[in-house]
Write a structure and sequence with these properties.
Elements (H helix, E strand, L loop, with lengths): L7 H7 L6 H19 L12 E2 L12 E8 L3 E11 L2 E10 L2 H5 L2 H18 L6 E8 L3 E5 L2 E4 L16 H12 L3 E8 L1 H12 L3 E7 L3 E8 L16 E5 L17 H9 L7 H6 L1 H17 L20 H8 L7 H9 L7 H33 L3 E7 L1 H5 L3 H13 L4 E6 L3 H17 L1
Parallel strand pairs: 2-5, 5-8, 9-12, 12-13
Antiparallel strand pairs: 1-11, 2-3, 3-4, 6-7, 9-10, 10-11
Helix pairs in contact: 2-12, 4-5, 6-15, 9-10, 9-12, 10-11, 10-12, 12-14
The structure holds alpha-D-glucopyranose (GLC).
């Protein structure tokens, strides 16, 4: 792979994205401080990394049994799943994805929940479970202040969602009401959870030492096992006999108060201004799939304007906002060394024909710069959590398209985390299979048995 240094104009633009070891160590320190603020009773209100308590104390025992519905909402698709837990190793999942029209993401909340209820009802009818009482675990991947396992108040929308009338409301109730308005299925929402929580719980089902759940997809976030005594926002934090509680950090918001400005680039600021949630989700905007492609696009456009790439070639599409998808980065970086088959295909899709090998090497090097920075930032986050838990040997369950499809992301995380940890802890990164669905069913099973 060509080094970015071979392309002076691109190198000039990309330099500020290249995090030094010292900057990374500083990020770890700053995140730790923000997390402590989120956990603390006196500091929580003004904290930006909210560290929401989840009311999930226990990792699965392996004895969970039963049939549960799960709902996974958090990206542009949402899924309904029927999960059957029948033995500690046997989980049967039947699922269906539904595409949501973009207008639903920014329209009235009631339309969103009515649409979800309609899909749920269709799914139950197809599976012949519409007459059965079905407990449902709701994976709702947005910042939620959880009042209990089955009660959660949306505090803000992220990732391109902006539905009116939902912030400040209990989303479980909004969905339950939508289901009841239809009245054609007997679904009871028993638990609400974040996708990171689902990922951690479902990974822990297989790997007992799993302590962190991570998502690097459309958005980015992580949850971890905190000592209950430190979760000061939990009423019973001093008296609970449960030693641990999963905390949903909502680390995407890290930096919203300016503490990451020392590493943000002018491109990050532009992305932020173009987004539907300016000044929010600063860390996420440097990391996740919703934004990585756009960063690459902005850099390419600037180089074109300087005449440093694609000389004499024209493309309308490259000037369209959000047109360069993050999946392109994974594809371009998957090209065999010395070949540019994927890159040429993608440029072709963008209407750029006749790019030179040099141009394509440059595009590849830009992609590498953006994905490497993303992985470095996530590494800082994970190392911060490992240090915080004082974990000596822990597994991390991971989901999300960026981690799943990028050819080098896993190795980038391993290398950077190893460097930052300097031998102080061992860790293992595990791809989670269907964490949101399986995790939702496991938590629904805990909730259902608590109710009994
Ligand atoms: C966003 C959401 C968060 C979620 C993450 C990954 O950061 O706010 O709740 O976990 O995306 O989907």
């Amino acid at each position: 792979m060509a080094a970015i240094t071979q392309f002076p104009a691109a190198f000039e633009i990309c330099k500020p994205f290249m995090l030094t070891d010292q900057q990374m160590q500083e990020i770890v320190v700053r995140l730790n401080k923000e997390i402590n603020m989120g956990l603390g009773r006196d500091t929580h209100a003004r904290a930006v990394v909210k560290c929401y308590i989840t009311h999930v104390h226990d990792l699965p025992s392996g004895n969970e049994r039963g049939r549960f519905l799960a709902l996974d909402l958090g990206g542009t698709n949402f899924r309904v799943l029927l999960v059957t837990l029948s033995s500690d190793s046997d989980v049967d999942i039947l699922s269906k994805s539904y595409v949501m029209d973009k207008s639903l993401l920014v329209g009235p909340g009631r339309a969103l929940f009515d649409f979800i209820a309609e899909c749920l009802s269709n799914f139950c009818k197809e599976q012949n479970i519409d007459k059965e009482e079905m407990p449902l675990g709701f994976t709702f991947s947005f910042p939620v202040q959880q009042i209990g396992l089955d009660k959660g108040i949306l505090t803000s929308w992220t990732k391109g969602f902006k539905c009116e009338g939902v912030i400040g409301k209990n989303v479980v109730e909004l969905l339950q009401h939508a289901i009841e308005r239809r009245g054609d299925v007997k679904i009871k929402i028993v638990a609400i959870l974040n996708d990171t929580t689902g990922t951690l719980v479902s990974c822990a089902y297989k790997q007992r030492n799993c302590r962190i759940g991570l998502i690097v997809g459309t958005g980015s976030n992580a949850c971890y096992m905190e000592r209950t005594g430190n979760t000061e926002m939990y009423e019973g934090y001093q008296t609970s006999n449960k030693p641990n509680m999963i905390v949903n950090t909502e680390w995407g918001a890290f930096g919203d108060n300016g503490v990451l400005d020392f590493v943000r680039t002018s491109y990050d600021k532009r992305i932020d201004q173009e987004s539907i949630n300016p000044h929010k989700q600063t860390f996420e905007k440097c990391i996740s799939g919703m934004y990585m492609g756009e960063l690459v696009r902005l850099i390419i456009v600037d180089l074109m304007e300087q005449g440093a790439i694609f000389k004499n070639l024209k493309s309308q599409s490259i000037y369209e906002k959000w047109r360069f998808e993050t999946s392109f980065i994974s594809e371009i970086e998957s090209d065999e060394p010395g070949h540019h088959r994927n890159c040429a295909n993608i440029l072709d899709q963008l209407g750029i024909r006749g790019a030179t090998d040099n141009d394509m090497q440059c595009v590849q090097a830009i992609c590498e710069t953006i994905s490497t920075r993303s992985a470095k930032l996530v590494s800082c986050g994970l190392v911060c959590l490992i240090n915080k838990m004082n974990a000596k040997d822990c597994a991390i369950g991971i989901d999300g398209g960026v981690y799943r499809f990028h050819p080098k992301y896993h190795d980038l995380l391993v290398d950077n985390m190893t460097k930052l940890l300097r031998g102080s802890a061992k860790f293992e990164l595990l791809l989670s299979e269907d964490g949101s669905g399986r995790g939702a069913a496991l938590i629904a099973s805990v909730a259902a048995s608590r109710k009994k």
